[in-house]
């Protein structure tokens, strides 16, 4: 059995599988009714990757706190080594070359480039703000201070 870092019941990060995605033209679309109309980030990871493991706290925090702030936002992860559900083939199709690889998900479920300056909560929040600003002024811009989110 392949280890999932986020598969436990108390996780604030959704563990996604290949069947949650579809190809549409030259794009990969996240197709999950529970996530429609929400922005998000998806981390493609390998359980053995130290950089991936180091991000767990940041992603768990954001997955928990952003929804509490009234933000239509989710955090998800895909274990690229899980061959039993086709995640390895999905990673290959998307072109994952290293771990972790992050994507922003727009309101239509399309995966977009997501390149935070750092993998810290602050770095992730800054890039989330940059991505959501492309779509509207009611974006997800928050800062992090004293282990709390401050959203404007």
Can you characterise this structure?
The chain has 152 residues and is α/β, with parallel strands linked by helices. The protein is 26% helix and 27% strand. It has helices at 50-54, 56-68, 87-94, 121-133, and strands at residues 14-16, 21-24, 27-30, 39-45, 73-79, 101-105, 111-113, 142-145, 148-151.
In short:
This protein has 152 residues and is α/β, with parallel strands linked by helices.
- Mean pLDDT, to the nearest integer, reads 89
Judged by helices, strands and strand pairing, the structural class is alpha/beta
Q: State the shape.
A: globular
- Determine the N-to-C terminus distance: 43 Å
Counting DSSP H or I runs of 4 or more residues, the number of helices is 4
| Arrangement of strands in the largest sheet | 1-5-4-6-7
Strand residue percentage: 25-35%
For the structure shown, list the relevant keywords.
single chain, 152 residues, alpha/beta, two-stranded antiparallel sheet, 4 helices, 26% helix, 27% strand, globular
Topology:
Blueprint: E1 14-16, E2 21-24, E3 27-30, E4 39-45, H1 50-54, H2 56-68, E5 73-79, H3 87-94, E6 101-105, E7 111-113, H4 121-133, E8 142-145, E9 148-151
Parallel strand pairs: 1-5, 4-5
Antiparallel strand pairs: 2-3, 4-6, 6-7, 8-9
């Amino acid at each position: 059995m392949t280890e999932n870092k986020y598969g436990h019941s108390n996780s604030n990060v959704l563990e996604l599988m290949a069947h949650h995605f579809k190809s549409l033209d030259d794009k990969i679309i996240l197709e999950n009714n529970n996530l429609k109309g929400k922005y998000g980030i998806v981390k493609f990871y390998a359980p053995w990757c130290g950089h991936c493991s180091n991000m767990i706290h940041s992603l768990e925090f954001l997955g928990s706190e952003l929804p509490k702030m009234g933000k239509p936002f989710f955090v998800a992860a895909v274990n690229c080594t899980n061959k039993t559900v086709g995640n390895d083939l999905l990673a290959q199709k998307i072109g994952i070359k290293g771990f972790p690889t992050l994507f922003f998900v727009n309101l239509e479920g399309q995966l977009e480039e997501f390149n935070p300056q750092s993998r810290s909560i602050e770095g992730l929040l800054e890039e989330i703000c940059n991505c959501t600003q492309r779509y509207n002024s009611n974006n997800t811009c928050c800062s992090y201070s004293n282990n709390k989110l401050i959203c404007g």
